[in-house]
Structure formats: structure tokens, C-alpha cells
Amino acid sequence: MSFLRFSVLVATAVCLSTALATAKSPNMIFIMADDLGYGDLGCYGQTQIKTPRLDQMAAEGLRFTQFYAGNTVCAPSRSVLMTGQHMGHTHVRGNARPGNRSIQSLRDEDVTVAEVLKGVDYTTGLIGKWGLGEAEHEGYVLKQGFDRFFGYLDQTHAHNYYPEFVWNNDEKLALENVVKRVEGKDPQRGFVGGAATKRIDYSHDLFVDEAMKFIDAQKEKPFFLFLSLTIPHANNEGFRLTGNGAEVPDFGIYKDHAWSDQDKGQAAMITRMDGDVGRILDQLRELKIAENTLVFFTSDNGPHNEAGHNLDTFHPSGPLRGIKRALYEGGIRVPAIAWWPETIAAGGTSDHIAYFGDWMATAAEMASAELPPNVDSISFLPTLTGNTAEQKQHEYLYWEFYEQGGRQAVRFGEWKAIRQPMKTGPVELYDLSRDLGEQDNIASEHPEVVEQAKKYMDEAHTPHPNWSPR
């Protein structure tokens, strides 16, 4: 290399380094729906439910086609997202039963994305559903790196869209929702074990309003907002009372459709959320901070069937097999849209294979923060910025699930393997490049691939005293 060329390269590197050092750190907003399926959005093939703002977000940003949740149910999926560790390593590996919530709490030694970003002077906020530690636990949200909290601590409390209170930082904020306890069914829906005599404060609306207040208050300095929505999760207890767990103030544009009320409610919830995501994007533009803000939208796991709606009406898993609680693609592959004007090229589609755990490395790289040790995380920032040649890949992605006898799954290349019961059961093998719907188990044709899958599963799984198949 000539001295002149070397000098030019050094000067260029110095300029780039100076630019990065002086540039304002980008804001990050991670919006996560609850139980939204891969096929629930128009930009992923949905034809019945209208999602114009999320479709617009995809048209203006980048749509991932092979992005995965941390797990197939909510608490462990959130644990993977927060810690950057896959299911064989993260501490919270399941939804704990009521009365034993302590095992569903992060520990002091767990390092969250919020703590990493707070360490480099980000203001951090969690609006919506936490589910990884209540007020008396080590995993309490304000002990895990978040400066601001507004929402639900307990996941069962989060089933109710018209609660009597929500948490406002470390205080309970009473809402104007009055409950009269009655026997039998509740024709108005919405309350655990009772009928609503007054329903004013719809929690989802409160969360979006609080998120927008947080953004406005923090617009002059770097912030990380985790907007953990509850839509379209069912009110499970409401369903047991009324047969309809799709709790929404009105059916909106679907009120005259020839659908069941359950289907109308399910669609109305998603469209309501869609419009609210649009409101946030509009706000960022109005505040003139859109170009310095990454907004990432996804879902915590696959779609549910707990609201009484008909899965055949909307096909929420799209072309995928399975729903929530399955480790087939429909239970863990989720919609994912990244929006960052002037940084992410508009209208792109990425087949990069990533998962919730990668948010840790991505956020750390964006903020020039140091990664904590022992994470299973690869930054997908090169994919966001169009530098795909620099994008690192996982050797494999791994999941495990402890309910229904337990099961494990691993994705490596185009291969997908599932073992159920976990650790001891037979292995199913699918080639996703030609069998996206996982209909053709070809394990008997590829014994060497099955052995490789078993090796990955055994390597990834670390036993945990709190979690065993049930």
C-alpha cells in the first residue's frame, strides 16, 4: 500500500470517528404487540384486518421476514429481549403460575438493555406490560434500569383492559373503572369476576398517551422507550365470563361486518393499535426527531386463540404452522418492521435471521455502549443500515418451552428441528426453504442433520432449578 493511500485511509477513519463521537446518539423506540401473529398485518398478507399505518411504516422502512420472538409465550420472550440471552440461558423461562411469581422475576445480577443504555446517559422508559418482577421482587422494573414506568407489573392484571388501577412509577394510580362483583356472565365484558358498571379508562389508550408524553419530554436528549402494548392479547378471565375476550371500546370500522362480535373485537383491537403506532410516527416527525430515532415494531410471540374469535376468519399465522405455545414457526416467527428515516432505506425486505436476543447487541452498538458478558446476541445494525456484507450470522437460534410436557426447537440455516418432549423425545426436521408450513417431517431422510440438531439443543440448554417440563 502506498504512503499516500495509507494517509487517505487514516484521514478518512479519523473523520468517521470524529463524526460518530460528535453525532447525537440515536433514540430508540421498541414497540411490541402482545400475541400479534405473523399474518395479522396487511404488509404480511392480511386481507381482512386493516393496518394502513403499519403497512406505511413498512413501505417507509425495512420489513423482516425471518425475525423470531424470544419464546412462544410472554414472560420468557420478554426475558430474552431484556437480557440478550436465549432460552437455554436466560433466567425467566416460563409463565409462572399465580402465587409463585417470584420465579418469573429477573435477578439483580441480570443485566437488561435498559441498564446498558442508562449507563451511557440514555433516559429509559417502560410503558405497558412488564411481567418480569413485581414491586417486592429483584426484577421490579425500576430496579432493572428503567427511569420511568407506567403500566402493569403482573401479567394476569394485564389481561384486563379496564383495570381499577395501573402502576405509575412505584405508585398505584386509581382509574375511573368501577367494578360491581356479580355472579354469572358479564354482558359488558372486561372485569375479572365481575360486571362493569363504569368503564372509562381503556388501558391501551392510556399507554399510548403516556408514551407520547415521554417522547415529548425527552426529545432533547437520547432516550430508549420500550412500549410494551397488550393488544391484541385476550382478556382470558373476561372470556370465561362472557365468551368474548377481545376487549375493545368499540368495533370501529368493523361494526357492520357480518362477523361474530369476537371477530369484530379482534380486528378492532389490531386496527386501533395500528392507528396509534401511526400517531407516534407522526409525533416524531412533528418534533423533528424522526431522523434520529429508530422505531422497531414486533410481537412477543405468535397469535392466540383465547378471545373466542375464529382463527379461520383472519389466518393470523399466515403461511406458518401453529400459534402461541407451539415451537412451530407460527408460534415464534413474528412480524418485525424497522423505521428510521434517512438511515434505513425505504421499502426494503430482509431475510436476515434474527431474534429478540439480538436487540441487546443492536442497541449497544447504536449507543456505543459495552455489551454485558455471556449474551447470545448479534447486532443487526448492519442490516438496518444496508451494510449486509458486514452482517454477522448466528450458528443457530434456540428455544425451549416448559408447558405441555416441554419442547425444544433450533433453527440453523434453512433447517428447523423440534424435539418434544424436550431432551428425550423424537426430533422432527423441516427444510424451511421448501416447506415453510412445516408439513413434511424429513427427519428419517437426514439422520446426520438430526444429530446436528440434537447437538445444538444439548449444547444450548443449561438446566435451571426453577424450570422443568410440566
TrEMBL record:
Keyword annotations from UniProtKB, A to Z: Hydrolase, Signal
Entry-linked Pfam families: Sulfatase (PF00884)
Gene3D superfamilies registered for this protein in UniProt: 3.30.1120.10, Alkaline Phosphatase, subunit A
Top-level lineage group: Bacteria
Enzyme Commission number: 3.1.6.1
Domain Sulfatase N-terminal: 26-367
Matching InterPro entries: Alkaline_phosphatase_core_sf, GAG_Ulvan_Degrading_Sulfatases, Sulfatase_N
Major enzyme class: hydrolase
GO terms of molecular function: arylsulfatase activity
Keyword Flavoprotein included in the entry's annotation: no
Signal peptide (residue range): 1-23
Protein's UniProt keywords contain Cell division: no
Protein name (record): Arylsulfatase
Organism: Novipirellula galeiformis
Upper lineage: Bacteria, Pseudomonadati, Planctomycetota, Planctomycetia, Pirellulales
